[in-house]
Amino acid sequence: MRRGQPGYRGVVFDLDGTLIDTMSFVLEGLATAVAPYRRRPTPDEVMSCLGGPSDACVRRLLGGTRHVAVALAAYFEFLRQKDHVARPFRGARTLLGRLQAASVRIGIWTGRERDSTLARLQALSWEYCFDPVICGDDLPSHKPDPAGLLRIVQYWRLRPRQVLFVGDSDQDIEGGCAAGVPMLAIDHGRRIAPGPLRRPVAIVATPAAAFGWVKTIVLAGR
Fold first, then answer.
1. What is the DSSP string of 174-222?
2. Can you state the percent helix, strand and coil of the chain, rounding each to 5?
3. Which of 55, 130, 167, 219 has its CA 20 to 30 A from that of 117?
4. Predicted TM-score of the model (pTM)
5. Residue 4: per-residue pLDDT
């Protein structure tokens, strides 16, 4: 490792919109599911409601519990019809392989429910890549509460500054910063509003750029 490099020993990834190209499905699916019960939300409005399991996102978009069950069922059906075309972002497999070869720990912190997460990882032959995998229904709290990310840090017996978190939502950014974990943010071309818990170590436009950043910074000298 080069002198002055951060010395990351573990990398935690968000799943949707970070490793796999599903964010467009998530945004469209949630907007479509709640549209019969309110004005159709914009992608930015949906993005701001992400974090935690799907029922929590739907509840935020609807502003309460009314119609949540039927909207949630519509959302899951939308995803079921799209899930077979979901693919990893280009470069994701290569990066994960290089991190494993360098003995860098890799984990997942996602708002997806566990059943959905494990099914998607298995479909991608990634079921043995990540340890641990913390999902949206594993804990009482959800992103941006940092409990899930801190559980991974503690499981690895590392300090927060030894771990890098890579994600793309506002909840990812706030959760990583609240945990004291260096955060690499993917903005997908949107503006990330500043704030006390929105201070990532770097902001990149695309997952591919994030993968390149990780290779340069985390794998330097390994």
1. HHHHHHT--EEEE-TT------TT---SEEESSHHHHHHHHHHHTSTT-
2. 45, 10, 40
3. 219
4. 0.84
5. 46
